[in-house]
Amino acid sequence: MKMTCVVVVSAVILFCTVLPCLGGLDADSSVEYYDADDASYANVVFVDSTVLTNSEEILVSTTSSNTLVMDEIAFQTVCTNNQNLFTEKIMSGVPMVVEGDATTLTDLGITVAVDPESDVSAIYRDPVSGTVYCYGVESDSDNALDLAMVWLDSIKSQSSSADSDVVLSYTKTLDCDGKKAQINGTAVYTELGNSLGKTYYSVRYYAESVCLDSEWSTAHIMVTCDVDAKNAFQGLVSYGPSNTDGQVSQEVGVSISAGGPELSASWSYTISETTIENRCNTGENFFQIYHDTNENNRKPTIVVEPGMIVYVQDGSHYNATDEYNVCYYKPYYEHLWPWDPYYEFEDYTLTADVIIDP
Q1: Residue 56 CB coordination number (10 Å)
Q2: Residue 109 and residue 97: Cα distance in Å, rounded?
Q3: How far apart are CA 216 and CA 209, in angstroms?
Q4: pLDDT, position 175
């Protein structure tokens, strides 16, 4: 049995295809994100400890036709010694990739999304639309840098046509248990407008669970954001799906009025054998949508697309953490005794720290 779940949340804006691989997906789609074999290193400028003494000269000569690739030590050193120049290069459209901890990006006063656990992170700001694109891979595999390079090529080839109201789009990937499964968390942040001293953003999530081992299946997918945990000057306005009441839903919607013309957006996605639980609380500025899937179904790929509207007061900037939690039903690999289970449930969580600098 399949039902169509329609989400309505914020500005008479149609979400254009700012996601190279997710546009037009439904929950039954099988998605291959990026092929590492397609990686190209043309015009790449590598910055490591051997060239740190010349880092300012390298930054000055770098243009948007180059891609900066840095290891963790070089990145932190450059950010400390040449922060203004480094930030200027990102803002002008120079793509950047970091191997290792990239959380220093959140200190630069720019719009960004960073997974603190990513092994490789990338950022690109489209100088035409102003949209910031971020990518992260948390994986034990040795091709994470290749995947980031392929992602950058894909984004740069299509991003200038994106809706200029989209301020941030990110994709984060977590490989689970030696890549027996994969979580792909994507979000699109769109500025809806300003009213009565508040700027409103719609957030459309794409939470994808991919079982790469045939013995694994998805038991639930949950997207969470404690909206005001990091900034008391922001809050949750509305969300969707909203009127689920613990049952599989057909059409659900949310609309808001921000002191002026109605701001709205809508989209739909297909679900199969799934119960949706709305756990949101606007009084607590807490967003959580839980999709309880049928682990016996053993679909290799499941995508769900909840969303919300948030606000941030003038003079502040949006700062929150998006969390994607997937519970897998998988073999109990430590089965030794007759009374040991053959299968178990295990949770994996992917996070993204989001900052929107107005």
Answers
A1: 14
A2: 18
A3: 11
A4: 94
